[in-house]
Each structure stands twice: as structure tokens, then as C-alpha cells.
Amino acid sequence: MDQEKRIAYLVKNDWSTAPVPTEHRRSNYGVVATLVGQIIALSGIYIGAGMVGGLTLTQAFIATVIGSIILAVLGGFLSWVGTKTGVGLSMLLRESFGTIGSYIVSLMLLLVAVGFFGYQATFFGATIHAMFPAGGWITSQTVAGVWGGILMMTTALIGYKGIEWLSNWASPLILVMCVLSCILAIVKIGSLEAFNGITIGYTGMTIPTAVVAVVGGYAFGACLQPDFSRMGKSLKASTWGSVGGFLIANVFMTMAGYITCAACGTGDVPTALLQILGYWALLILVFAQWTSNDGNLYFGTLALTTILPRANKHILTGIFGVVGIVLSSLGITNYFLTFLGYLGTAIPPVAGIVIVDYFIIRKGEYHYGEGVKHHFCNVLALIAWIAGGAVGFTVHWGIAAINSIVTTAVVYLVLSLIFKNSDKIYVGPDYVEDEVGSISPVKKGVSAVSYTHLR
Fold first, then answer.
1. Rounded CA gap, 285 and 44, in Å?
2. Which of 267, 401, 340 is nearest to 109 (CA)?
3. Which of 47, 48, 82, 171 is placed for a possible disulfide with 37 were both Cys, Cβ 3.0 to 4.6 Å?
4. Pairing relation of β-strands 439-441 and 431-433?
């Protein structure tokens, strides 16, 4: 394959299996808007609404800021790595976990992403039906879930450019609508101070549990920041796009949910938004869901193409989008929520390994491209991942995702220092990348010197 055909192939597949070259990266505004667009999710508004009745406005703000700071630190580090290397999370795992580890996590990412795409389509349908209960068949939960899922699939089908295009104008629009909602809610109740005296039935929410809700609501997404930040030209823009997205957009969306619902005396988000904004609330409900759920489908197919580099990413996106919508319309996704939750809990610990491996162990030396060699399996990463996952599943104090990430990072660092320079931590044959990022076992008799990079 000549260079021109190789570039055309990688562009068509959204550079899913190779570092994005500088000349193919996107504008700073586009990358920041895309990162923020994924963070501006309807789930944030619902988390804020869940705090009403349990926390005062001040307490809700404190909990939201603390949770968002934790997410900003995690997302900021990973966003930096994505831009620096030019590759997404699944490709990063080739260096830290090895080939088999990256495959295992990629398959888990696919299942979780497609499952939650379908679930969010169901959630979208339920929201539309709650807003327009007398709207006829078009606003029935099932039908609305189908056309909502198709809408969200369209931008994911186009790829990063489609998601960026939507985020460029939808992200500012959502934030403006939320600002308007907050202003009208404050006018309705009289003053900000008045929110601290509101009680709408005791919910049992405390500041610690609210922090857990904020972090848990987007820990999975924070770990996937490299999938978008790899398109950034500027390390500063990509990193601050992620950090600012959590510290500003996430805080604002969560507090908008709290203020709007508290002012209306209800924890029901569609009802509260309708009272405050009328049918203009549809803009928030549709686009906040759209700008985040298209990312679910994008993340999943991006992960799968690292296993099947020569498959057409757009065809895979269409297939799994239809699968997600069918599962949603049949109501099947509701039965898999516990299973998806387990998988979702198991994925964040890999972020701890990537951060420690990239910044401390390898000191930024990650390499990709034709001739680059990767190990089959890094045993230390696998042990650390299992240890972190065990903590995440069994320790019920604190924040499960953060507990597992920190545990994994510490175990991996300690083991790496103990077994420093030991080749025994790697098992199986080495794998080498070809011109489009596909990998295969190193052939016997081929000199290792012929490869661009040796670990």
C-alpha cells in the first residue's frame, strides 16, 4: 500500500489505529467544544435534581465542585496523554497492557458503550414521552427512543467530524439555555438564599453521597478523554478543554438541575424544565442527550477497530447503532444494566495503569506505527488491574471508581519498581504493527533490530 492510499484509508477510519498527524488534527475550538459536549450530558442535570431535598444549595455546590475536581484531574491527565501520543485509550493500552490486554479492554468498552447507547435511547424516549404525553405515536416512549437513537447515530456514523460539528454549536446553545433556566428559576423563587430553605421530602442525600454520584456519573467518560483529545493540536487546549469541561460545564449542568427542580418543588426534570422554559426545554433535553450519547457509539466502535483495523469503522458504527436501537425498542437493555454496571466499574482502573506507565515508568515514551513492537501481555498490568477491580467491587466506602483507579495505580507502580528491568513480566510472543496499525506476531528469524522501537 503506497503512502497516499494508506493516508486515505486511515482518514476514512478516523485514524483509529494510528497516531493522528499534526496536519490532520482539528482546531482548538473544535476539540474543546467536542470534549465539553461529551461532558454536557442530561445525566448531570438528573444528578443535580437528585440532590434536591437532601442538600441545601450551598451543600450541593460544594459536593458538585469536589466531584468535578476529581473528574478534572483524571480527565486532564488522560486528555494530555491522548493529545501527546495522538491515539485513543485502546491504542494506549497496547503499550501499557500489551496486545491481549488491549483486546480484552476494547471488547469490554464495546459492550458497555453499545449497551449504554441503547439504554440512553430508551431514556431519551421516556423523557420525550414525559414532556409530550398526548403527542400521539411519535412521542410514545418506544418510537421516540427509536428516532432519538437514529439522530444520535447519525453524527457517530460520520465520525469525529460529525460529533465535532454538532458540539460546535450545540454545546454553547445548551449552556445558554441552562443559564436562562437558572435565571428564571431564581426569579421564580426570589433569591439564591431562598434555595437553602427548600425541603421537598428528605432524600437521604449527603455531601459524601452526592460527591460519589457526581464522580460515578462520569468516571467512565473521563477515562475515554483520549479518544477525542487525540485530535487536538495543542496540549494546553486539549487538557484545559477536559479540565474546564468538568470544572465549569459539569458543575454548571449539575447545579442547573438542582436550581431548576428546587424552584419548581419537584425532582422530576422534564416537569421542572417545562415549567421554567416551556417547550424550549426540548432543546436542552434533546441536544444534551445527543452530544453525549453519540460518543458512546463512537467510543465502542473506535475500540473495536483496534482489534479489527481493516474493518470499515462506519459500517461497524451503523451495525452497532442498529443493535443498540433494537435492544432499546425491545426493552432488553434494562435487563443488562447490572451487567453493564459491572463492566463499567472494571474499566476505569485501566486509567490508573496508563497514567503511571506513561508518566512514571515509561516517561512519555509511547510509540506507534509500522514496525513498532508491542508485548503480548504485561503481567504486572494484569495483576494491578485485577487488584483494582477487586477493590472497586468489594469496598463500599468512598467512590468505587476512584478507589479502583488509585489501587490499580499504586499496585502497578510498586510492582514495576520491584520487577524493574525484568523481562519475566512479559509473556507470549511479541507483536508488530503494520502500515495501518494491524498487529501480528513477530516472525521467527526476523531480526529485532529491523523494528523501529524496542521496549
1. 12
2. 340
3. 171
4. antiparallel
Contact 59, 207 (CB under 8 A): yes
In our burial notation (b when 16+ CB lie closer than 10 A, e otherwise), range 200-230 reads: eeebebebebbbbbbbbbbbbbbbbbbbbbb
**pLDDT at site 438:** 86
Average per-residue pLDDT for the chain: 87
> Which residues are CB-neighbours of 128 under 8 A, at least 6 positions away?
135, 139, 141, 144, 148, 285
CA–CA separation, 331 and 264 (whole Å):
31
User: How many Cβ atoms sit within 10 Å of the Cβ of residue 38?
Assistant: 30
Cα separation, 391 vs 407, whole angstroms: 7
Do the Cβ atoms of 159 and 321 come closer than 8 Å?
no
R_g (Cα) of the chain, nearest Å: 22
The C-alpha atoms of residue 138 and residue 384 are separated, in whole angstroms, by 49
Q: Specify the pLDDT at position 398.
A: 80
- Helices then strands, each counted (H, E), the chain: 19, 5
* Confidence band, pLDDT 50/70/90 cuts, at residue 134: confident
Question: What Å distances lie between residue 143 and 222, 325, 331, CA to CA?
Answer: 31, 10, 12
Least confidently predicted of 78-82, 254-258, 397-401: 397-401
- Give the distance from CA 270 to its chain's centroid: 24
Phi and psi torsions of 119, nearest 5°: -65, -40
* Distance in angstroms (rounded) separating the CA atoms of residues 122 and 324: 10
Reply yes or no on whether the pLDDT at 453 is more than 70: no
Q: Is residue 415 predicted with pLDDT exceeding 90? A: yes
Could you tell me if 119 and 328 are in contact, meaning their C-beta atoms sit under 8 angstroms apart? yes
Other Cβ atoms within 10 Å of 79 Cβ, number: 30
Using the structure block, give the residue that is written with the C-alpha cell 483524571: 74
Residue 26 per-residue DSSP state: B
Q: Are 400 and 211 in contact (CB under 8 A)?
A: no
Q: Which residues contact 266 (CB under 8 A, 6 or more apart)?
A: 200, 272
In the structure, what pLDDT confidence band is assigned to residue 201 with cuts at 50, 70 and 90? low
Are the beta carbons of 215 and 67 closer than 8 angstroms? yes
User: Are the beta carbons of 171 and 29 closer than 8 angstroms?
Assistant: no
Q: Which residues pair with 26 in a beta bridge?
A: 232
Give the pairing of strands 431-433 and 377-378.
unpaired
N-terminal to C-terminal alpha carbon distance within the chain: 27
Cβ atoms of 145 and 120 within 8 Å: the answer is no
What is the structure's pLDDT at 203?
61
User: pTM (2 decimals)?
Assistant: 0.89
pLDDT tens sequence across 260-299 = 999 988 888 888 988 998 888 888 888 888 888 899 899 9
